[in-house]
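Reviewer 2 asked us to include a model.

Predict the structure of this chain.
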Amino acid sequence: MKSDGFTSSISQAKLFRKNFYFAVDQPTVLTDTVDGASMSGRVSPPTAFPVILHHTPDPEYDAVTPHDILAHPARVLTQAQRQTYFETGCLAADGLIPAAWLDRLNALSAEFLEQSRSLSQSNEAFDLGPSHTADHPHVRRLRALVDRHPDFWRFAAESPLADIAADLVGPDVKFHSSKLNYKWPGSGEIVKWHQDIPAWPHTNYSPVTLGVYLDDVPAAQGPLTCVPGSQNGPIFVHRDDAGAWTGSIRDADMATVDTAGAIDLTGRAGAVVAINCRTVHASRANATDRVRPVALFIYSSADAFAWMAPPTPTSHTGDIVRGNPATVAHLDPTPCPVPPDWARQGYGSIFTSQKAAYSA
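Predicted model (structure tokens):
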């Protein structure tokens, strides 16, 4: 690593690694080249442990705040919807995806479900459930969605979804990742309480997951359920006492979270749900006889940079879909737990992580 104005403390880094945390003492300006943008010092790719960085911020750079974002004219969402998102950390809005796009997403979903009949085990594209057979497909997740078909990427980059992202993260928008989750009838795809950011930490907390409901999702179908305001609370460790990744918040920590006011993000086909990366959320069993498909796309402000390998990288991870690349990185000083090194150990899905943790 270059030392231009930077100092690193290996002992501090190891201490934070032991406790699963990365931290910086103040917003930091990085230089040279990150995601193709010109910077003023360079941070090498993530190592086996995080490094503590210290640097004097650029006095001309101000991190984008919710107030700044709301000052930009809304593109798709109403101002009230944007304010709700910043206040609660989540949002559900009907009628945002044009019918032509919704039809195309459903057609592609059906095509890939049909393809899965020829598989007997999970691969880089499909995360299969334990009951999967050729006669009765059980696909839990279609991974790296934008790499499965060009139209998935066109949707992520060219549809109103990227404009919705701009309404929530600011005019300069970076794409991170995507997937298509299926919740089948029964309890097979219950997802325990968790936050997203511990799995793919960034230098700030702008990342937002935008979910598109491909069919109507009533309360009985196990919609995404969020704890409003939890985006302003702690970022929890998603590991067991032995340090193994579980993909969920420990029971003792959840006892400190008030879930009584949790809200279901229900919606009709074409609805978009937005969940901030720090918001505590889950989804219960699907009590209907219909599968619940939801396409999930993650975006961030352009000045947010991943500091660990993503769980499921795509060929478009880091692409700017609205506005311009960042010329400085915004580092939020709030500590974030360190995930496993996915580039080394690989990643299945939240379903496999949570199942493994609670069947051990």
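The longest strand covers residues 173-183. Residues 76-325+334-359 form a domain with the Jelly Rolls fold (CATH 2.60.120.620). We have added this to the supplementary material.
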